Amino acid sequence: MFAHNKKLQYSVHVEECNPGLANLMLEQFGGPQGELAAAMRYFTQALAEEDPGRKDMLLDIATEELSHLEVIGSIVAMLNRGAKGELAEAVAAEADLYRAMQGAGNDSHVTQLLYGGGPALINSGGMLWTAGYIDSIGDPTCDLRSNIAAEARAKIIYERLINVTADAGVKDALGFLMTREISHQQSFEKALYAIEPNFPPGKLPGNPEFANVYVNTSQGDGDMRGPWNSDDNFRYVSDREAQLAMDGGDGKPSVKLGKQQQECLSAFAGRTASETDSNPTTGAELGKQDY
Amino acid sequence: MFAHNKKLQYSVHVEECNPGLANLMLEQFGGPQGELAAAMRYFTQALAEEDPGRKDMLLDIATEELSHLEVIGSIVAMLNRGAKGELAEAVAAEADLYRAMQGAGNDSHVTQLLYGGGPALINSGGMLWTAGYIDSIGDPTCDLRSNIAAEARAKIIYERLINVTADAGVKDALGFLMTREISHQQSFEKALYAIEPNFPPGKLPGNPEFANVYVNTSQGDGDMRGPWNSDDNFRYVSDREAQLAMDGGDGKPSVKLGKQQQECLSAFAGRTASETDSNPTTGAELGKQDY
Amino acid sequence: MFAHNKKLQYSVHVEECNPGLANLMLEQFGGPQGELAAAMRYFTQALAEEDPGRKDMLLDIATEELSHLEVIGSIVAMLNRGAKGELAEAVAAEADLYRAMQGAGNDSHVTQLLYGGGPALINSGGMLWTAGYIDSIGDPTCDLRSNIAAEARAKIIYERLINVTADAGVKDALGFLMTREISHQQSFEKALYAIEPNFPPGKLPGNPEFANVYVNTSQGDGDMRGPWNSDDNFRYVSDREAQLAMDGGDGKPSVKLGKQQQECLSAFAGRTASETDSNPTTGAELGKQDY
Amino acid sequence: MFAHNKKLQYSVHVEECNPGLANLMLEQFGGPQGELAAAMRYFTQALAEEDPGRKDMLLDIATEELSHLEVIGSIVAMLNRGAKGELAEAVAAEADLYRAMQGAGNDSHVTQLLYGGGPALINSGGMLWTAGYIDSIGDPTCDLRSNIAAEARAKIIYERLINVTADAGVKDALGFLMTREISHQQSFEKALYAIEPNFPPGKLPGNPEFANVYVNTSQGDGDMRGPWNSDDNFRYVSDREAQLAMDGGDGKPSVKLGKQQQECLSAFAGRTASETDSNPTTGAELGKQDY
Amino acid sequence: MFAHNKKLQYSVHVEECNPGLANLMLEQFGGPQGELAAAMRYFTQALAEEDPGRKDMLLDIATEELSHLEVIGSIVAMLNRGAKGELAEAVAAEADLYRAMQGAGNDSHVTQLLYGGGPALINSGGMLWTAGYIDSIGDPTCDLRSNIAAEARAKIIYERLINVTADAGVKDALGFLMTREISHQQSFEKALYAIEPNFPPGKLPGNPEFANVYVNTSQGDGDMRGPWNSDDNFRYVSDREAQLAMDGGDGKPSVKLGKQQQECLSAFAGRTASETDSNPTTGAELGKQDY
Amino acid sequence: MFAHNKKLQYSVHVEECNPGLANLMLEQFGGPQGELAAAMRYFTQALAEEDPGRKDMLLDIATEELSHLEVIGSIVAMLNRGAKGELAEAVAAEADLYRAMQGAGNDSHVTQLLYGGGPALINSGGMLWTAGYIDSIGDPTCDLRSNIAAEARAKIIYERLINVTADAGVKDALGFLMTREISHQQSFEKALYAIEPNFPPGKLPGNPEFANVYVNTSQGDGDMRGPWNSDDNFRYVSDREAQLAMDGGDGKPSVKLGKQQQECLSAFAGRTASETDSNPTTGAELGKQDY
Name one GO molecular function term (chains A, B, C, D, E, F) (predicted). Predict the structure, then answer.
């Protein structure tokens, strides 16, 4: 069960209102690499986790990510706080309020008009948060790899936000949040490598014939070799013919059909056949422009 | 530029029509861990990649994933092929066609009714594919980690599909596709570790004060230690007070407001204040049920 | 900041595994009326709330809803727990595992195949959770009304789930969750009516000419009167002509155009005009079937 | 059945073209609080309504909301009308047309490039309208509460649009639309309170032990009391221990597993266990940066 | 402005309740080819239409499609009507109600649990309606072609629904709705061909060098010729080299960079380069399984 | 199977970096009328196509569209290339980097912050690509019509992009891409008209009573006649009464209910009835403002 304390995990002291900057911060509130995605990723994994140590870790980090959601959301709320009152009370002229929500350095009209300055679960482009951002599948060696990648991505988005933020208070809090992602990544790495073996994931081995093969499908100027396709590590298949039907078969799809299935399919194919030896007049030709 | 050969990368010989099984296969066609997501993930990364070796690798694997999309899509098409003709030609009784799209072991009504038996970019639950499934952010050390995780996940979904598939032809092709994910994961791993250093991602170092801290936010029965939060690796913070306002500040959010901003905010707060010392009659009380 | 205790707010003791029932429970986990929507609705409101009493209440209830998300998610995890291991270890025949995820009384293939039995942020139909489910707009008299309605809806979905659940342990926990919605609705009601006045919302009065008018747009057999359109409460406008252009104007849309705008528009309209006095041969006529 | 008259319900006379303002207006066309959401909300409720009076009311108001969709859509069309022709005919230099769709006070590039100046079912941030905005659940006491809240929200969005609109013609029409929401809210209120009792919704009573309990989950500085958690109205639970496992049980989730289920689960847990007493070298350590 | 009469455009007399069939009908209510998509497609086009004849036609057909939405929605409501009351009143045993919403021939749990038997704007797979289904772009020769295609598609979905419906009353109403699509297609065809010329759409001619070229990108067994790529109609390019860089250039992407841009890019590329001549130990190798 | 050559189908030589222009180009990368939608539309159709000639054509054009996706994606990557490095290396002041992603003529913050300058599958408004953009239904006469319309739409979006692009290199490549849509449209037209008959689509004839009827639902000033509703082509129904219940029935919806169904429905209707002859005090009245 969760409990809450009204103190934030990190103090947020914003220098001045700036709805345009607030909008950018939404990337880490309601964006794909943001804190809600992180919290829900770990929380939902925790609920089904069979390993008690990982379950505890996932709950620890999920709870901290919720607390980060609160920190970044508080930044958004503070940056919007001045504009919020001005729009609600409408003390300024229409044209001034209009300019205050769209103009140079400011793409905050969705936040202001639709959400009244509150932090909404959208990214900076107004895209609604979707659970499609969460890629957990219920296998620990996969989910831990997904978590490692997610922490790495979140670290970079914070770095970019820091790079565009001149407000010292916001920058300081962003630095904390960015750093915590580094720490979380290290925990997930430890948990992954504490599973042995962890590669390949799952129980089924691959087919050894195809498990260390590199198919050079993109050729021409720019073709390169490296450890990801070196002869040390892989069988390198460049021959175009050898890339086709690698099972040695005909490379075709087929299915056995029952008699009624075959008859129906023939009837369907027959009545919708495009004649190859015709040259029918088309709608486009009826309406064609003479240049 | 792409070219195409009508031979598949792997032959697909399906034993018999089975729209219910076809529907499950959609997970790897239009599902979040499926081949379109894989192909587009690597293809879009390739277009902006500055490293020529990685660019080539990403194009190689993207092109192969498109070819896998063709293989899994051909499986779907073959499994649906018999039912497609029967519905289009309507030779059977309505009740029979009705049962053929929903019934025990068969949740194929969306595929049949809406898509006419064609492979659609949905998952097995009918959820439309969305680019929210792709998590690329344009940083190589992050994107490679995301790719590693994505290959691991795809491997497992194929394993699960294999576990529920009795059709030998389908099972064989799924085995090939699953194995290729293992191979791709290895290539991405090599490419990641060929970047040195690769951790933490990005250019900004974290704040050392918080980079190796583990916050034990979830406590009570079940609290555990492991390498992910051990004293060897982390400073472990369990004290509830020490978890709050880790900057040592007041833990509050604040922002400096201009005079008009402050006045508007006060007006707004004033006219929307909820009186704490009232006990107003509510709508619910007006309509309350007497148990 | 959040803290967590590994004890649930309510014990969950499930009688037996049932992935089909688990799937239904997802309505209150990742569905539109579920606990994530509730928690995020109140949490995001709290962050921007100016009234300290309401802010505290919103945080209290948001935190409890997160704890309910944990309870319902634990129900889902327990109901799926048996099937999860069987699929991962693949000890049964393919056909048995196939039937175990789709068949009479069981629409759990998305949960099992894609999410490995973990609780995912989808509803029972596999629709991904979206922040479009949250309707907060940053005005207290609106948001409290939205919260009241949301609690009422959640109560009913729990009631429906209870009606279809024979498992006594699940039923008991659902009863607790349902009851808490009743309690929360009462809190939100008190907070709304503690704002005086609270109707109409906002600062701008309506135009008195149209504020108490009922437009009887749907006529014919079945036209009825009640307090929602009675003469006591409204001016009732049934005359079709009087419903049009209620401003007394021409009922047309117009805009003043600049000279270049007008010229371009004329050029555009001219080159795309559909001649009214022609009877052109169409594409459909080219391809028309003779019945 | 619907009929249509080409006169609008309210005349729309726009002073001058302004694609930037047009874009803001989309909030009430294709946005979550807009007229399509309103119309579809009431229309779909009406179709399944058993109460003849409410059915008539819902059809009346749905039909009027469709007419409002036409009014707001006509405002959008008029504001875009000049720019539409200029882009289609391309009489201006590329740079001028470029600036005319994005620049200070103008975020109209989606409308212009993709929709050719036509009113599209998106909000001002380009988010596509989704039926996730509609929260009807087929229970009258819930749906009426949802409708009341929806009308309140729509009123406020109109108020905000009015506050940023200097065009007198647009402002006048917005004032009408805003006022009608006030009137509709009153009708829905009458219909709700004409159901007795209407609280709690549904047929099942709550568990009296938990129906009037307030759980003070958020504590620390800022904890407050008011009618929403007063001792007059609620049993106030602040003790952290008393908040856990409120059923008096162990606060744990459990499920009875069959023998094969238990064996599979053990096998799965065993092969994916993270060793707690290890300190494995991780991928991050392989690639770690030396600061 | 719209008006409404409580008589439907076509009577709906359903023989018996069938929530499973109701669910299928949702394809034409809230599905991509359904009546809401049709109505909104034409209605939004009408609002921005400059041609008075087409504007009138679009409003006529949009209004009729809304009336069809009412017909198909009434079919859904009637088919669900019996189950709705039984779930709400819970007179049957839990297991019976459970089976009544999922089981052979019945995938109605979303409709029943979440929507209480009301027609919801989802398709038969539970996917929420999205405005992404509407493809209008504000050019008449395009939009009319889109409308023609949309009517054709809707006709086929109705045909498929008819093929699986044994209920005579439902079948009769579906036949009417299907027929009206045929009629509408003919109107849109007439309106398109009444624009002369109408091909190619728009004002800019294509580059004559590439306007009648067919690029044979897919080769191998199965390569075919027909009027769509015949020498009569097209220049047929099969030579792989001739398909590349058809402008005769180098086929590469390039951009001129400023000095600082170039320096930053080099720094970025340098610190994230993957060494090609290394063979680093990877994370996967750390955790590799020995088969 | 697919193969790839690192040469583009058309060379892309961009004059200078311009993230604002890059953002607009996304309409044809990840927008509804863009190249991914085109490629996937034809590719998925091809997989289930029974006609060998059309199957080959669909694969040819799908493969070319993938190659166009590469061209437009390369344009995006080049236009963003300078800004990408500057943000990653953070050599400029925060305020400069802030202005470089939002400001006059530049709405690129999503691309830069979230995607690091890589081409993402979003449109210019940040809306994630969704498979809802694809309207294939598995019937050739429908799908070919959909393809014709899609090519027409894509042509126009390219035309609009050309109209706002001053960069000669970008303009040249856009001209190529636009022209290819013209060519593709012609191929699809030939393939459609090579099916005889092709109208109406499908196997079921319409009901002759309603197949050539035009219902004049929108009346009043602006009512017009043209070939789309002329007496030559249609029976024109203007009489309002004749538009209702065109089957000659009662225009009502009904369903036969079983005894228990009827009883439950009565109980449900009874306990949720809104009394018509009451005038209850409402929540709004409790909180009403005195103007």
Answer: metal ion binding
Query: Per the CB < 8 Å rule, is A261 touching B7?
Result: no
Tell me: cis bond preceding F197? Omega within 30 of 0 counts. yes
Q: Does A164 map to a domain? A: yes
Residue B14 falls within a domain, yes or no?
Answer: no
* Pair C105, C220 in one domain: no
F120 and F170 belong to one structural domain? yes
The verdict on A125 and A218 lying in the same domain is: no
DSSP state, residue A26: G
Per the CB < 8 A criterion, the answer to whether E3 and E63 are in contact is: no
Same domain, B102 and B75: yes
Which of E102, E146, E187 should we substitute to test contact with C (largest number of C Cβ atoms within 10 Å)? E102
Query: Nearest 5 degrees, angle CA D280-CA D285-CA D291?
Result: 145
Contact B94 E284 (CB under 8 A): no
Structural domains counted in chain C: 2
**ipTM of predicted assembly, 2 dp:** 0.96
Alpha carbon of residue A136 to chain centroid: 12
**F176, part of any domain:** yes
Whether D220 and A6 have beta carbons less than 8 Å apart is answered as yes
- Give yes or no: residues D186 and D230 share one domain: no
Residues B78 and B174 in one domain: yes
- How buried is residue B249: exposed, middle or buried, by Cβ count under 10 Å (0-12/13-18/19+)? middle
SS3 content of chain F, % helix, strand, coil (to 5): 50, 10, 40
Torsion of CA B240, B242, B247, B249, to 10 degrees: 80
Express each pLDDT in B157-215 by its tens digit. Answer: 999 999 999 999 999 999 999 999 999 999 999 999 999 999 999 999 999 999 999 99
The runs of H, that is alpha helices, within D111-239 are 115, 140-163, 168-193
Helix (H) or strand (E) holding E81: helix E52-89
Residue C233's domain comprises 208-242
Q: Which residue of A has its CA nearest to E277?
A: A226
Chain D positions touching C198 (Cβ under 8 A) are: none
- CA distances from residue F276 to B74, C219, C226, D53, F279 in whole angstroms, order as listed: 60, 17, 4, 7, 8
Of the candidates A4, A54, A112, the beta carbon closest to that of D274 is on A54
| Domain final position from B193, B223, B256 | B193
Residue B135 counted as domain residue: yes
Out of A98, A109, A141, name the one closest to residue D124 (CB): A109
- What is the DSSP-derived secondary structure letter of residue B194? T
What is chain E's pLDDT, residue by residue, as a tens digit (291 residues)?
999 999 999 999 999 999 999 999 999 999 999 999 999 999 999 999 999 999 999 999 999 999 999 999 999 999 999 999 999 999 899 999 999 999 888 999 999 999 999 999 999 999 999 999 999 999 999 999 999 999 999 999 999 999 999 999 999 999 999 999 999 999 999 999 999 999 999 999 999 999 999 999 999 999 999 999 999 999 999 999 999 999 999 999 999 999 999 999 999 999 999 999 999 999 999 988 654
Instruction: Please check whether residues D26 and D160 belong to one and the same domain.
Output: yes
SS3 F18: coil
Tokens of residue F55, six digits: 């199957």
Residues B213 and B155 both lie in one domain: no
Three-state DSSP at B21 gives helix
Half-sphere exposure of B227 (CA within 13 A, CB side): 20
* Distance to chain A for E227, nearest Cα, Å: 5
Q: Which long-range contacts (CB under 8 A, 24 or more apart) does A262-268 make?
A: A262/B85, A263/B85, A263/B91, A264/B82, A264/B85, A264/B86, A264/B88, A264/B89, A264/B91, A265/B81, A265/B82, A265/B84, A265/B85, A265/F50, A266/B85, A267/B85, A267/B89, A268/B84, A268/B85, A268/B88, A268/B89, A268/F50
Instruction: Report the distance separating Cα B31 and Cα C115, nearest Å.
Output: 11
Residues of E in contact with B103 (CB under 8 A): 104-105
